Amino acid sequence: MKTSQAILHEELIIFEKKFKDAVKSQVPLIDRIMRFIVNRKGKQLRPMFVLLSAKLCGQVNEPSYRAASLVELLHTATLVHDDVVDESLERRGFFSTYALWKTKISVLVGDYLLAKGLFFALANQDFRVLQLLSNAVQKISEGELLQLEKSRSLNLSEEVYFEIIRNKTASLLSSSCAAGAFAASNDEVLTEKMGRFGEKVGIAFQIRDDLFDYGSGEAAGKPSGNDIKEKKLTLPLIYTLNTVDRSTRRELIYIIKNQNKNSRKVKWVIDKVIETGGIVYATGKMNAYRDEALAILNEFEDTDVRKGMEELVRFTTDRKY
């Protein structure tokens, strides 16, 4: 991501200051938790997509920074709530908010971030950007609930899988790119185009996450099987379930439902997915979505900004963690 970070060097410094200001509170406990969250921020992919989309479609301006801050507020809120739902004690290699402050405070902090984001947008009359991102938050919730519903029966088609990840993961990246485009240009045609671009990148991003569960990537190390343990049907596994004979399918489903904590059984499932070509199939789908996103980018003028965005797209599929 060196090119992208170099292109956005000054903008990211400004964004970080604006985001810190955006999460400030008069309540000492909230301020303490916000400092904890800000100091352990991730790669800031979504704000980078917002700001690069703005540069691609115009100039980074105050509405662009506000759009990037709103994206980060809403994204952080979903992560805080996710850790509560998953009872996850870690986030990005550190203790999660849930691990340190438990359920009640974590839920309220997530609610605070959502409310902050809504107020932040309304106070600045960023109605179109708020519309784009509110729609994404709704889709994220729908995707999560659909995944929970389908994981109970383990009856998930490839079509439903893509509906889930389009809502759960791709919607926020799509809205990030669309918001950046609109903030810089007020052009609905560019906004729609960048929304399509972001959705394709988001789908590729999620498939890459699916592949990590099978040790696909140097830094991924040994296969973790965490998705299998949580009864999540990812694309490599769905392909395998639809490819193997009826007897093997029954055995796979039985293990996922009843023996998903047994490391030896989980390894057998992983080996079966690799053996039947599930990794190869999912990788092909991921690369296809990446290439569709790059094709949309190629409609823009060949500039350093476009090159930076292309690098960011390739990072989502080539990353090792």
Supply the number of structural domains: 1
Can you tell me the residue ranges where pLDDT is under 50 for at least 5 consecutive residues?
218-222
Integer average pLDDT:
92
* Assigned CATH class: Mainly Alpha
Helix share, percent: over 70%
Count of runs of 4 or more consecutive helical residues: 15
Secondary-structure-based class equals mainly alpha
CATH topology: Farnesyl Diphosphate Synthase
**Which range does the strand content fall in?**
under 5%
- Described by the principal axes of the CA atoms, the overall outline is globular
Give the name of the CATH architecture: Orthogonal Bundle
Q: State the total count of DSSP E strands.
A: 2
Enumerate the strands of the largest sheet in spatial order, edge to edge or round the barrel.
1-2
- CATH-wise, what's the superfamily? Farnesyl Diphosphate Synthase
What are the secondary-structure elements, in order, as H or E?
HHHHHEEHHHHHHHHHH
Distance between the termini: 14 Å
Largest beta-sheet details: 2 strands, antiparallel
**Rg calculated over all Cα atoms:** 20 Å
